[in-house]
Amino acid sequence: MQSSLARKLRVLRAAKGWTLREAAAEVGCTKETLSNLERGLQHPHDITLSRIAEGYGVAFEELLEEPEAALAGSSSKAEASETGQPEVSGRQGEARLDKLHAVTNLVQDIVEEFRTEHEEREAEALRTQDRRQLGTFMAKIGWTYRGIVNHIRGDVDMQRAGGGTLEERDARARIISATEELRQIGTSATETYLSLPEAAEELGANVAWLPGLRNRAS
Asked: C or N terminus of the chain, fewer CB within 10 Å?
């Protein structure tokens, strides 16, 4: 079972809308360390915890571990969403929110990686007039995009989040926003690809991603 600190760190990062790399830079630790802390695989020294609290703009005390008894007591309380419908209580509700934050952070990290790769592939293609690596990138981003969209549309927790608590709706909105950015990266890559000589004749091998990107995530 993951610690309350791990969950707090995931919630704080999702609320800021930061990728793992951006958050690590803000709090002054490595991306690997922050990832381990968010997954409950590592516990920070007080000085590290103090830097993290300062980076996220919260009090040091807020990041201290909660006693198990307190956690057990809080998990038994039912919550209601702003729609007036009773919300899943206890550990089920926490698990769903944890899942939404985990997906939010994952999608944002994926977008950051694709954004960086897009810049590199595009610059290389324009410099060398070689479309092959950019075409491979287009196919990869397309399949990734469609996988995320299918998850948004088919996952039960994602659908419930649309009418859930404010925090759940916010997490879902962040996932959709990041997914839309991924679509825009794919569209930009396609425009660059088509601007290169004889690209239209060779687009067939990479066109599979186009239908997926035409269908927005929302």
From this structure: N
